[in-house]
Specification:
Distance between the termini: 39 Å
CATH architecture of the largest domain: 3-Layer(aba) Sandwich
CATH class of the largest domain: Alpha Beta
CATH superfamily of the largest domain: P-loop containing nucleotide triphosphate hydrolases
Radius of gyration: 20 Å
Largest sheet: 7 strands, parallel
CATH topology of the largest domain: Rossmann fold
Order of helices and strands: EHEHEHEHEHHHEHEHEHEEEEH
Number of domains: 2
Number of strands: 12
Number of helices: 11
Strand order of the largest sheet: 3-2-4-1-5-6-7
Strand content: 15-25%
């Protein structure tokens, strides 16, 4: 049976920067063929036009599907499931599926849909990314233009028009595997640090909180989380058990300086064979916790084993499996990815110990 296709759900309020983040992802897809499902009820196709103009060879116009019959979490059976099935039936299957929800969509019903028969064996939720407008949230507004959010909510009769935005925000945070504090360039370092700390405290254990400007984050950080969110619904259930959602048109900020990949760094650690792979995996997890590493992946040479051990870590969660014989030198090579300022010397020493 073919491996399940990973899908990433990108959620967040109107104007948080979801489309900008996805556009940057497409332009730096590193050869991955990405299919997009965009839910923009009442949005006149703005997001789709922005993304279709990204000029990416790995995401053609045929790979972008727009759902405009209402909020995606209210139309799972009517719109989302049939759309997903059509993507899966294509001769050339995508390497990854990215779903951009409307601005007030609850991610939980959407993630739950991946347990449906016919879907559960072919696709898995790689992770839920919640994008927040850092400046607005720090000021207690949750969205840059609250009136615009309420106006779009009023356009969909299926939505709860009375629920405070703060409760919708809580639900989006409750479902997140990664929280992106976008528009960090509009905040002071102290404001951004305080908000990141607050969101980390309010989210589930293991949820990563990252800062970004203009949605600029490395693809290796956004994709490949390997969470399998649909199998973990109890931990990410709706906080307020409501059904409310709306649309999104993410605005750009061309008058602010752009933070780029220089805010992240990666390097390779090379070492010899490992005698005890389980003990080494536990040690890697400890090093990740101590140094706040985002991703760690590579291959481990295990003493007495002809096969190489693939190691992948998202935060402190480490997964390993033997995949194929070594084609080159029998050595352990690990790629470390994190925010700028990692203590390379200490990390290299720890992983080489």
């Amino acid at each position: 049976m073919p491996a399940k296709i990973p899908a990433t759900v990108v959620t967040g309020f109107l104007g948080a920067g979801k489309t900008t983040l996805i556009r940057h992802m497409l332009q730096n897809a590193q050869g991955k063929r990405i299919a997009l499902i965009i839910n923009e009820f009442g949005d006149l196709g703005v997001d789709g036009d922005i993304l279709k103009g990204c000029g990416s060879e790995v995401c053609s116009e045929d790979d972008i599907v727009e759902l405009s019959n209402g909020c995606i979490c209210c139309t799972v059976a009517e719109d989302f499931i049939p759309t997903l099935e059509k993507l899966l039936e294509r001769d050339v299957r995508p390497d990854h599926i990215v779903i951009e929800t409307s601005g007030l969509a609850l991610p939980q019903p959407l993630v739950r849909a991946f347990n449906w028969p016919g879907i559960s064996t072919r696709v898995t939720v790689d992770g839920v990314v919640t994008v927040v407008d850092g400046k607005a949230v720090a000021e207690g507004r949750f969205a840059h233009d609250v009136a615009a959010v309420d106006a779009q909510r009023a356009m969909d009769e299926n939505l709860d028009h009375e629920t405070p935005l703060s409760e919708l925000f809580d639900d989006q945070i409750a479902c997140a595997d990664m929280i992106v504090v976008n528009k960090a360039d509009l905040m002071s370092e102290a404001e951004a640090d305080a908000l990141a700390t607050q969101l980390k405290a309010e989210s589930r254990p293991g949820v990563q909180v990252l800062r970004a400007a203009m949605g600029v984050l490395p693809v290796d950080v956004l994709l490949g989380q390997g969470i399998g969110a649909e199998a973990d619904m109890d931990a990410r259930g709706e906080v307020h058990h409501h059904h409310h959602h709306d649309d999104d048109e993410d605005d750009d900020h061309d008058d602010h300086h752009e933070h780029g990949h220089d805010e992240f760094e990666s390097f390779v650690v090379t070492r010899g064979e490992v005698a005890d792979p389980a003990a080494f995996a536990a040690h890697v997890s400890d090093v990740i916790r101590e140094h706040d590493i985002l991703r760690l992946k590579g291959f481990v040479a295990v003493t007495g084993k002809p096969m190489r051990l693939t190691l992948q870590a998202v935060g402190p969660r480490v997964d390993t499996y033997f995949d194929q014989p070594f084609a080159g030198p029998r050595e352990t090579r690990l790629v470390v990815i994190g925010e700028a300022g990692l203590d390379r010397a200490a990390i290299m020493a720890a992983l080489s110990a």
